[in-house]
Amino acid sequence: MFIFSIALIFILTAADQLIKLAVVKNIEVGEIIRVIHFGDTDIFNLTHITNKGAAWSMMSGKTWFLVGFPLVIILAGGFYMVKKRNESSLQNISLALLIAGGIGNLIDRIRLGEVVDYIRFEPIDFPVFNFADICVVVGVILLAIYFIFFDKSDKKPEPAAEASSEETTQESSEETPAEVDSDE
After folding, report:
1. Of the candidates 48, 62, 148, 146, the residue with the CA atom closest to the CA atom of residue 98
2. 3-class DSSP state for residue 59?
3. How confident is the model at residue 139 (pLDDT cuts 50, 70, 90)?
4. Domain that holds residue 104
């Protein structure tokens, strides 16, 4: 599963970059292409924008942070994936998604100085996003599910194990007074 996860990182990163290349080549910055709509109500549109910041252009101009932080997350995620490679398929896939999305947007920031975004969800005021962003969000959600429901590394002992250790403690404490009485 570890090799599959490494291949998944390369495949998702390549897909992200190819989609962004197609957007840059075929959609003018600011152009809107209606994709999913009901009557006059738009649901999803393709809208080519560039973003020098994070969501809603937050931290625009903070390039050192917007390159450094994802780089740290990518390296930490990669290290953790290698260290725990045989533990869980869900963990490996979630880390692969997170790393691939981080690499996809990091390539844009280093190469272009900004990120190419193109997916606009119209019913709510939500920032325009891209495939790499989807990978990061899905990866984080899956990783949270793994740690909340499946990770067994830092769990307390099972109640049955606690009960047997309590019985052992009670037995040894019961023997101590008997030993004291027999000596007198």
Report:
1. 146
2. coil
3. very high
4. 22-151
If one counts the domains in the chain, the total is 1
**Band of pLDDT at residue 116, cut at 50, 70 and 90:** very high
In a domain, 172, yes or no: no
Q: What is the dihedral of CA 79, 51, 19, 124, to 10 degrees?
A: 100
Query: Which pLDDT does position 11 carry in this prediction?
Result: 97
Whether 114 is in a domain gets the answer yes
Which SS3 state, helix, strand or coil, does residue 117 take? strand
42 catalytic per annotation: no
Share the mean pLDDT of the chain: 83
Using CA atoms, how far residue 125 sits from 1, 59, 97, 158, in Å, is: 38, 19, 25, 46
When pLDDT is cut at 50, 70 and 90, the band that residue 184 belongs to is very low
Indicate whether 5 belongs to any domain. Answer: no
For 105, the token pair is 């947007």
- Is position 133 annotated as part of the catalytic site? yes
SS3 88: coil
Q: One of 42, 108, 133, 154 is an active-site residue; which one?
A: 133
Catalytic residue among 16, 40, 42, 117: 117
Indicate whether 167 belongs to any domain. Answer: no
Amino acid at 181: D
